[in-house]
Structure prediction request, 296 residues.
Amino acid sequence: QYLAVADHLGGFQMIDIGDPQAPSLAGGCDEPNEAWGVDATGELAYVVGYHPSTLEIIDISDPSSPNVVGTCELPTQGALDLAIVGDYALVADGWSGLQVVSIADPASPSVLASCASPDKTGGIAVSGDYAYAAVSDSGVQVIDISNALAPQSIGVCDTPGSALGLAAEGSLVYVADRSSGLQILDASDPQHLDIVGNCDTPDFAMNVVVSGGYAYVADFSSGLQVIDISDSSQPMVVGSCNTPGLAYGLDMVQAYVYLADGFGGVCTIDVSDPAHPEIVGSCQTPGEPRDAALSE
Prediction:
């Protein structure tokens, strides 16, 4: 198993996580500049760069020698996140909102459509025919993507903080809301989202993944926060793990969270006991990781 990493000024890196307690650099490439968000499917990784704003498609069939096979320039600087849906990459492109990029031909990705946002778009999650965009101080924007060539904004739900990252599972959306911790939104009616629960965190909630009744929050200088979400109306922190750097993004594989920890590299955190998460391995990278995604 490998982890694809958006390594900020270090471009793109692949980390061998075959042994979660001894992760090691396998290979990397310099592009994109200021890499912030990453996703991976099969033998390809998709990485967005902040400045200039680009989507890079990277061949990772040989993890020791990843290479860029396609580049798509985006409208303005500020791309921070993306989600892959079939032949499309949905890119959270800062002040340019949502960009729909065709990735059917990895060598020639191109912007096909876009949807304006009320604020800076920094995170994206998809559930069914809807994309949920974290739009900073405006909260969460709901975008109908049933026709990817004509995405339509159908509603916005303000949150108390500044929405940065999110995850969607079932009829709920989990929002990393910066200074306001974790917000849980009921999306059973996508046109009318409602906040049904919230849980403060010690620092800035940057991103979140959800698994097995828990939300795992990258909480900037406070590392990883583990939140019990079995009762969505009363989420509560049940465990935490300080990290050496600044927690930006994360992904999860079985009982391990892989945390993009800025100058702390990538940390492997064992969460088999959610009340007592602990760092069991780490890997330094050339840059400062902002995001990570599993690549099998």
The mean pLDDT is 97. DSSP finds no helices and 28 strands in the chain. The first strand starts at residue 2 and ends at 6.
